[in-house]
Amino acid sequence: MVKKVSASAAKAQLAELVLGVAYRGDRVVIERRGKPVAALVSVEDLERLEQTQPTAASQRGALAILGLWKDWPKEELDALVADIYAERDRDTGRPVDMKDL
């Protein structure tokens, strides 16, 4: 059974949630503003998840592309990084309400 709780509810009910995970096999998804941000699972579930992690030889996603940069000329990489920083400086960002953090 997967139970969804808000971050504030998880904080208030942590002991109860941990008991449910440990003894009933519950799984808890912790949400912030309705979006899942973390999960509380049993140690057995975590061990199974860790066994399915990709090895260094089969990395995917961002880790897989790291090796692609080795053949690029240093000047091109430097220019790319400079462009990224320049774009970040131009970005005005978005307002963040600190009370929700």
Q: CATH superfamily name of the largest domain?
A: YefM-like domain
Distance between the termini: 28 Å
CATH architecture of the largest domain: 3-Layer(aba) Sandwich
The number of distinct helices, counting runs of at least 4 residues, comes to: 5
CATH topology of the largest domain: YefM-like fold
- Content-based structural category: alpha+beta
What is the tally of beta strands? 3
Biggest sheet layout? 3 strands, mixed
Q: Spatial order of the strands in the main sheet? A: 1-2-3
Which regions contain 5 or more consecutive residues with pLDDT less than 50?
none
User: What's the alpha carbon Rg, rounded to whole Å?
Assistant: 21 Å
**Average pLDDT score:** 82
What is the class of the largest domain in the CATH system?
Answer: Alpha Beta
For the record, the count of structural domains works out to: 2
The helix content, as a percent range, equals 40-55%
Order of helices and strands: EHHEEHHH
Instruction: Work out the strand percent.
Output: 15-25%
Shape type: flat
Q: Any overview of this molecule?
A:
Helix content is 47%, strand content 17%. With 101 residues, it is of the alpha+beta class. It has two domains: 1-53, YefM-like domain (YefM-like fold), CATH 3.40.1620.10; 54-92. It has a three-stranded mixed β-sheet with strand order 1-2-3.
